[in-house]
Design a protein that fits this description.
The protein is α+β, with helices and mostly antiparallel strands. Helices cover 25% and strands 24% of the residues. The chain has helices spanning 54-70, 73-77, 83-96, 208-215, 257-267, 298-301, 311-320, 356-361, 365-369, 379-386, 412-417, 427-439, 466-482, 486-489, 538-548, and strands at 2-9, 12-19, 101-106, 113-127, 133-150, 157-159, 175-180, 186-189, 225-230, 236-244, 249-252, 273-278, 285-291, 335-338, 341-344, 496-503, 512-519, 522-528. Strands 1, 2, 3, 4, 5 and 6 form a 6-stranded antiparallel sheet that branches. A 5-stranded antiparallel sheet has the order 13-12-18-17-16, sandwiched between helices. The chain has a 3-stranded antiparallel sheet with strand order 7-9-10. A hairpin with a 5-residue loop joins strand 4 (113-127) and strand 5 (133-150). The longest helix has 17 residues, at 54-70.
Length: 550
């Protein structure tokens, strides 16, 4: 009569087949001559000292592995130097790993350490779609090792108990558990159905797991059965073996494989580089790419000052407040004082008799800072939030940092106008800023179709006024055609606009390079940490991404 523990995984029911009397954990095939005794029938012996002998190492290893293979947790634990800890771990292994048969084969000792090979067999009863069940067989093999030491009080040769004996990747307090393998697997595709995987698109390794976790089940997937590491609280970690494959859900994303490919190639040219592209009319994310040693998804979750790319928001604010217009003459001196702090332009630029549009195109800091006294510390924060949607808890489909433009005071107010101070953003945020400028209104960025779940779609409180939107686009086009972005954007066809930026960061030598721009119905932003001027590093990345857009 067979007994077993049933694991229900979505529409899949899997039973671990065992033999009555051992709780679904039938393990025979022990070792060597099968002698698991360790007592001495001839009476007590003197307490031994010194390192274990070769014979003691052999017999202790044999008896420990044989007891473990039989599912005798207490018997195996008694042969270790931590019987309590080993009993708990071996019992948990017996009850949670759900192995049908276990074979443990020792290798040749090196000193007191003995390698051994583990072969674990699983038999899973899986319900068929049309009814009935079929038995799935799975074998998992790996190598481990143990060390034999002299017991301090008994003098007996004992196994030096470590969690890594069960599996070399285990640490103290961890164990193995067989069960539902977390969220159902997915097969991600782009907007046209082209496959997306981390092998072809390395940057997606930071995105696909989050999509699987959030949408695997909603998209119709069924979880598989996996052997996973669990921590001391029972929380799942790394998957070590797949016992039964789940059913992958096809998850359509908003990404464009062609644009994603261009983004991946573009960031590789620079260390610590990130880029995002979105569609201004829909908010659909077309590409996301990072090239970083730490693997961090800075494109979506980074927090950095945006430098002069923030002047897109600042210019909109100043024009909406009626303080300036694109064609109005403004001063652009080399230096200006604001909030008790002295500011200067890059390369000590000065423009005499120029318009606001020219100061924008040539990225004049002092022209913007000259308007700081006409603003409150709340004004820029409100414009960023209410018009450009920054800091409004976006629901993009994966974890994102959605920007922070806090109220300012003192020297922070003029600094904020040029993207310094306490402002924090990432390329996703600034790509959205470029998209808002192009469309004239904010559309929340998203990575999966809105109809896939019931998550709310964040709205801004108001759009740009038609007059300000027209002026802002004209200023961004001027920047792309004859301003600081002209060399980067030269020859790019279509309706284009851009803004360069560089942002100083504490503890860095060179400034961070920023660039945002749009072409037709695609907007993008990039940052290269310590990349210097915006047009030098971040600019070429955005150019390549926009060039690949349709």
């Amino acid at each position: 009569m067979r007994t077993g523990a049933k694991v229900v995984v979505g529409a899949v029911a899997a039973a671990v087949v065992g033999v009555a009397g051992v709780g679904g954990y039938n393990i025979f095939e022990a070792l060597a001559d099968g002698n698991t005794g360790s007592g001495n029938v001839n009476g007590p012996e003197p307490v031994r000292t010194g390192p274990p002998t070769a014979e003691e190492i052999r017999t202790t290893t044999r008896d420990f592995l044989a007891a473990w293979a039989k599912g005798d947790a207490s018997g195996a634990a008694a042969l270790t130097d931590n019987a309590e800890g080993a009993t708990q771990a071996l019992t948990t292994f017996r009850e949670e790993a759900r192995v049908a048969r276990l074979r443990l084969t020792p290798g040749k000792p090196t000193g007191n350490r003995v390698p051994f090979h583990v072969t674990a067999e699983f038999e899973m009863e899986v319900e068929k779609d049309g009814g009935g069940v079929s038995v799935r067989h799975s074998t998992w093999s790996y190598d481990s090792s143990l060390a034999v030491v002299r017991g301090r009080t008994t003098g007996n040769a004992l196994v030096d108990w470590q969690a890594a004996i069960l599996h070399p990747k285990l640490r103290r307090g961890e164990n193995l558990r067989t069960g539902a393998g977390g969220a159902p697997p997915i097969r991600a595709v782009d907007r046209d159905g082209a496959p997306l995987d981390a092998g072809a698109y390395p940057s997606l390794s930071a995105v696909l797991p989050a999509l699987r976790e959030k949408y695997g089940e909603k998209a119709g997937g069924v979880a598989g059965v996996e052997v996973r590491i669990t921590d001391e609280n029972g929380l799942p970690g790394e998957t070590l073996h797949t016992v039964a494959e789940g059913r992958k859900a096809v998850l359509r994303t908003t990404l464009d494989a062609r644009v994603q490919r261009a983004a991946e190639a573009a960031v590789k040219d620079y260390p610590e580089a990130s880029v995002v592209a979105v569609k201004p009319t829909t908010g659909e994310i077309l590409a996301v790419a990072n090239h970083r040693a730490d693997g961090f998804n800075a494109a979506f979750e980074g927090r950095m000052a945006p430098g002069s790319t923030m002047k897109v928001v600042s210019a909109a604010l100043l024009m909406e407040k009626g303080l300036v217009s694109a064609g109005k003459v403004v001063e652009c001196p080399k230096f200006v004082t604001g909030g008790g702090r002295r500011f200067h332009n890059l390369d000590y630029l000065s423009i005499r008799g120029g318009t606001f549009a020219e100061s924008f195109a040539r990225s004049c800091n002092t022209a913007f800072i000259g308007f700081a006294d006409g603003l409150t510390g709340e004004d820029l924060a409100e414009e960023a939030n209410e018009v450009f949607g920054l800091g409004r808890d976006w629901q993009a489909g994966v974890p994102t940092f959605d920007g922070s433009v806090p109220p300012s005071e003192g020297a922070d107010t003029p600094a904020a106008l040029i993207g310094q101070g306490r402002i924090e953003v990432n390329p996703l945020n600034m790509a959205s800023v470029a998209a808002t400028a192009k469309a004239g209104y904010f559309v929340q960025p998203r990575l999966v179709p809105a109809g896939l779940d019931d998550r709310p779609r964040i709205q801004a409180e108001r759009a740009l006024s038609p007059s300000v939107a027209r002026q802002l686009r004209a200023m961004m086009r001027r920047t792309a055609v004859s301003g600081t972005a002209r060399h980067v954007m030269a020859g790019l066809p279509g309706n284009i606009g851009a803004k360069t930026g560089s942002a100083e960061a504490d503890g860095q030598g060179d400034a961070n390079s920023w660039f945002l721009g749009y072409r037709n119905d695609a907007a993008a932003a990039a940052v290269v940490q310590q990349g210097g001027h915006g047009g030098d590093a971040a600019g070429p990345i955005v150019r390549r991404v926009l060039g690949a857009s349709r």
